[in-house]
Specification:
The complex is a heterodimer of chains A (262) and B (266). Chain A has 262 residues and is mainly α. Chain A has 10 helices and no strands. Among the domains of chain A are: 79-202, MetI-like (MetI-like fold); 203-249, no CATH class. The longest helix of chain B has 19 residues, at 247-265. Classes of the chains: A mainly alpha (262), B alpha/beta (266).
Chain lengths: 262, 266
């Protein structure tokens, strides 16, 4: 059973990680919080009542909300811009340097700028996060549009496919792998920027909880929240990304042994 | 203009419905190289129901000529006529089998055929019957729900043939459809193609650089050179069904090869 073997290795690596953590907490008790303390703190985080039912739920939800909205905006805008760039050489030569400049702008600066423009408000985050992650989507989709097969387009034109049929049955399927890797980079960068926005500008969300732990020199709380956050990522990875990938690429010969989660 | 072209102003005496290409010129502007002539005053006749091949070395413009018929390339000069009337590719009923199969990897075998039927606006209720019929014709009915990536090169090209046949064209265009296949598979597919051609009674315009293939398949062969000219029209009068081991096939091949050689070195 290859599946079982793979699961075994995953489990083994997790055990090693926990083992290293334990060793670290024994060797450097001042800087690495103990596993027991962290789990106890995690229990406190998960059970303490608050104004929104459980506050952990509130914070995680707010973070997820911001990342989901931002990724959605970035995917739509980035796909349109990227495909436009990849299919029009005029637009490409006119604006490609803009995209690279946009990409090079440090995300911290972008967050600060929108913080000043919008104040300490979630709106700043809802603008700053898409602004930071959209160029990554643009870059991916740009590449995807450049890779569109002109021979398939010719085939579709020969048989007389209209624009709609060509778009849905010929163009989009060729872009799917690029859409997927766009989604992946948008998410992975988006998480980081969302946390940054929450820590710097806001008073809610997982990022803010990290910042509060930092302000109080409370490493144990930060570790407990890290566990909550990683759990959220795992849920998104295996609950959304893996099934989505499987669905979109079921026609590929290698789809039988999907190796997605790295 | 040849006398043939002049006479075709009146409806064809035999009413054969032959497709006549007259004075087809195509050149491309290439930066730094001026204009490159690909087709130089090409005249060819494709008789209805005939198997006609265009042969020539690579880069001689044979695919371009076929794409003119297909409407994928606009000639700079020249006309296409049928029964004395000027026709455009839109007036022709055509199917195309490309050199590489050009299947949609993300569509099943049946869906690939359906793609062409939908593109040609074949009524929905007719589609399933046609898909089944033509996949069966190329021996791929059991693979209808399989994806192209799981098929061999020969099977993929069969799907492409079924897709082209399913639009029920009067003329089937084939651009070196077997050149990327191994010789055994290609040989089988050629015989199947001739069977289908006979039973369906359509016209085939076939592009190849393989003289043997052209002789085995064709009624008529047009020979092209690198200057973009058709320099000879030759008929193949070998009785059908033909056999690969038939010495007359080899003999005709040798004759045509000799002509090619003489033309190129002259």
């Amino acid at each position: 059973m290859r599946r079982l073997a793979r699961f075994g290795w995953t489990l083994a690596s997790a055990v090693v990680l926990v083992g290293l953590w334990w060793l670290g907490s024994v060797a450097f008790p001042l800087v690495v919080p103990g596993i027991g303390d962290t789990l106890a703190q995690l229990a406190v985080v998960l059970t303490s009542p608050g104004p929104y039912g459980h506050p952990w739920y509130f914070h995680v939800w707010k973070t997820a909300e911001m990342i989901a909205v931002s990724v959605a905006i970035a995917m739509v805008v980035g796909s349109i811009v990227g495909v436009a760039l990849g299919t029009s050489s005029r637009l490409e030569s006119a604006t490609s340097s803009w995209v690279y400049g946009w990409l090079a702008a440090p995300s911290l600066v972008i967050v600060f700028v929108f913080g000043i423009w919008f104040g300490f408000d979630a709106t700043a985050g809802y603008v700053a996060v898409p602004v930071v992650i959209t160029p990554f989507v643009v870059l991916n989709m740009w590449e995807g549009a450049r890779n569109l097969d002109p021979q398939l387009a010719e085939m579709a034109a020969f048989f007389g496919a209209d624009r709609y049929q060509t778009f849905t049955e010929v163009i989009v399927p060729q872009l799917v792998p690029f859409l997927f890797s766009s989604l992946r980079s948008a998410l992975s960068i988006g998480w980081k920027i969302t946390l940054l926005v929450e820590a710097l500008l806001l008073t809610r969300g997982v990022g803010y909880m990290f910042k509060r732990g930092f302000d109080n020199y409370d490493l144990t709380s930060m570790m407990a929240w890290l566990i909550v956050f990683v759990a959220l990522l795992v849920v998104v990875e295996y609950g959304v990304l893996v099934p989505l990938h499987r669905r979109l690429t079921h026609w590929r010969p290698e789809a039988e042994g999907v190796r997605l989660a790295e | 203009m040849t006398t043939r072209a002049a006479s075709s102003d009146e409806p064809d005496a035999t009413g054969s419905g032959a497709l006549e290409l007259r004075g087809i010129v195509k050149y491309y502007e290439k930066p730094g190289r001026g204009s490159v002539l690909v087709l130089d005053e090409v005249d060819i006749d494709v008789d209805a129901g005939a198997f006609v091949s265009l042969i020539g070395p690579s880069g001689c413009g044979k695919t371009t000529l076929m794409n003119v018929v297909a409407g994928l390339v606009d000639p700079n000069e020249g006309t296409m006529r049928r029964d004395g009337r000027t026709v455009s590719p839109d007036n022709l009923s055509l199917g195309y089998v490309f050199q590489d199969d050009r299947l949609l990897e993300w569509r099943t075998v049946a869906q690939n055929v359906r793609f062409a039927l939908k593109a040609r606006d074949v009524p929905t209720e007719e589609r399933e019957g046609r898909i089944e019929h033509y996949l069966d014709m190329v021996g791929l009915a059991p693979e209808a729900d399989n994806y192209p990536s799981r098929l061999s090169g020969g099977m993929r090209q069969r799907v492409a043939i079924a897709r082209a046949l399913a639009v029920e064209p009067e003329m089937l265009l084939m651009d070196e459809p077997f050149s990327s296949l191994d010789e055994i598979t290609a040989g089988d597919l050629r015989e199947e193609l001739l069977d289908i051609w006979r039973t369906e009674g359509m016209t085939v315009l076939f592009v190849t650089h393989d003289i043997n293939e052209a002789v085995f398949l064709s009624d008529t062969i047009y020979m092209m050179d690198r200057r973009g000219q058709v320099f000879a029209r030759r008929d193949v009068d070998i009785e059908r069904p033909r056999h690969y081991e038939d010495p007359s096939v080899a003999q005709r091949e040798a004759e045509l090869y000799g002509e090619f050689h003489a033309h190129v070195t002259s």
